[in-house]
Structure formats: C-alpha cells, structure tokens
Fold Triosephosphate isomerase.
Amino acid sequence: MKKLVIANWKMAPQTVKEAQAIFAKIKSRAARLRGVETVIAPPFIYLPLLKSAGKIKLAAQDVAKDDGGPWTGEISARMLKGVGVSYAIIGHSERREIGEGDDVIREKLYQSLFRGLKSVLCVGEKEKSQEAFPHIVREQIKKALRGIPRYFASKTIIAYEPVWAISSHSKGKADTPQNFFEMSIFIRRTVLDVWGKSAALRLPIIYGGSVNAKNAKGFLEVKGGSGVLVGKASLDAREFNKILEIADTI
C-alpha cells in the first residue's frame, strides 16, 4: 500500500506565483514516485489554479457543515469536488482552537464523506499528559464518528496530531515514533467500538506534528501507520520532496 503524505500549507504562501512555483517543484518529483500518494492542501483560493495533476491530489483545509445555504464565507464539499479536490482535512486543531466543536466537526465530516471526498479527521491532545490524552483522543473520535454510516470508513483517514507537537504552537517538538505506534493501536481500538473490526483494521492512520525530512522516516516506518501530515516543512519544496522520497522507499 502506498504511503500517504499530505502537505498542509495553511495560510501560505502569500502569492499565486509562489504557490505555483512550489507546486511545480513538488509535481515534478512526485511524478517519478510510485510508492507514495502525494496530497497538497493549499489555501482555498489556489485550488482552481493548481488543479489536481497526475501523481498529486488536492485537499481542502476545511469544508462547510452544510451543503448549501446563506453561510457567508463558507465553501461546501460539493463545490470543492467540482474543482477537482479529492481530500479534505476536518477538525484540525487550529480550527478547534477558534471554537469549532465536536458537533460541527461531525457535520463537516459527514458532508465531506457524503460528497465522496477522502476525509482526514484530525485528533490530538493539547497537553503532553499520559493520564489525560487517551480519554481526549477517544472522545474526539467517538463524537466525530457518531451517527456516520460504517460504509464511509473506506474514505476516512485519522491523523493523530498532538497539539503540543505542532511547530506553530510554542515551537512544538515532534512526538516519538514509538508513541505514534501506541496511539495508532489505541485509535484502532476506539474505531473498533464505533465501526467494528473490519473498519478498525483497514482505516489509515497518519501522524502530524513538526514532521520534517529528518524525522519523517521514523514515523513512516511505524507498523500500522500509513503516512504523515506535514505542515511548515511542506512549504519548502526541497524539504518536502525529501519526505516524499523517503516515503517512496518504505
């Protein structure tokens, strides 16, 4: 199975020219790699300009919780599908930070899945606490998946992204591959409770949080892991291409 490597550009770069230049460099390298699924999630306004091409798939950084209606500033999953988007990131910690609750995340996840987008559900704890985080992650998963039909499991991906490890939060430091391995087991057990054994065994689980070319190999080699979600490092085409090359060899 191909490793999944997702670039989350967040609110960058600041110009179309920069976005196209980074995209072109990544596209050139990705075209030569057979063992990796390369996904780029740029700001919304760049999606129609970059277009999904060959070995690169496009992702949205968010979707609206409704398919239509008078929601100023929102973009629906149907609209995204219409401009060639294949993936969507749902419930990222930076969305949760500005007040996005579990009910909204569940509605967004449903809309994304219903419209046929492969949906990356982000979960993770704010503080590095051995006692607290299993409960937090379990609740985030269960609340997000509650009421969503099991047949959507084939298009669902879970990204374990501890908030304390994200570089934009207090200069975060990446978690360890060993902890990601343990969390992947814990996440599968939680999915088992909701969707059953088949879904729990097959559902891809990826790691996010200060991933770079130096530490990516450890996370990509984790048994039961399916890839990585890359933030800041994905805006450096050379750095991100190194991560793709590493993923291609595993």
The chain has one domain: 3-248. The longest helix spans residues 177-195.
